[in-house]
Amino acid sequence: MTRRPCFTADPLPVSLRPIGVMRSPHLLHHEAPRQPRPGTEITGEIHLAQGLQNCLKDLRGFSHLWVLFWCHHTRGWNAQVVPPRDREKRGLFATRAPKRPNPLGLSCLRLLRIDKRVLTVGDHDLLDGTPILDLKPYLPYCDAVTDARIGYVADLPQDGPDHLWWWRDKQMQPPLVYRRRGLQRS
C-alpha cells in the first residue's frame, strides 16, 4: 500500500454549507463553558435553514444530539497548545482546542424541544451565531465507550488552574470587549 501525503497539491474540493445557526446567550468565548456540561441549565436554540424541517421527522424521541459546528471565531492554529488545567504543551490532536486546521466542533447536547425548524437545546457550549453543519442522534449503545482511556487528562487535577481568565492571572485589565460586557471576573 502506498502512503499518500496528508496535504497534496490538488486536494479534493470540500464544500460545507451550514444547515442552521445557533442562538445562544454566549456572545464571547469566555462566557461559554469549556465543554457542554450537564446540569448547567444553559439553553439555546438551533435555527435550521428553511426547507430542512422534514429532516427533523422522528427526532422528538431522542434526549441528546451530536451537533457538528464551525468554530467561526477562530483564527489560525498551532501544532501544540496548553489545554485547560494543564501547564504543558500538548499535540493539537490530543486536545479539544477550537483553533484547528479545520475548526470543526462537536458537542453532545440535550434536546429539550422541537418547534417547527427550531431546536431548543440545553447544557451547551456554543456561541451565538455559530454555523451548524450537521445533527445526529446520540445512541448510547454505540456512542458511549465505558472502558475508554483518557491519556494525560487522567493525571490532571480536577480543580487545576484554568487559563480561561488569563488576564486575571497576569494581573492585567481584561480586553476592552470584556470590560464593556462586565466580564472582569474577580
Task: Characterise the protein shown here.
By secondary structure, the protein is mainly β. The chain has three helices and eight strands; from the N terminus they run ββββββββααα. The protein has helices spanning 140-143, 166-169, 176-180; strands at residues 20-23, 43-48, 64-70, 80-81, 90-91, 104-115, 118-122, 131-137. The strands form two sheets. Strands 1-2-7-6-3-8 form a six-stranded antiparallel beta barrel. It is globular and about 45 Å long.
Helix segment tally: 3
Tell the overall outline.
Answer: globular
Strand count: 8
Low-confidence stretches: none
The end-to-end span amounts to 57 Å
In a few lines, what is going on in this structure?
With 186 residues, the protein is mainly β.
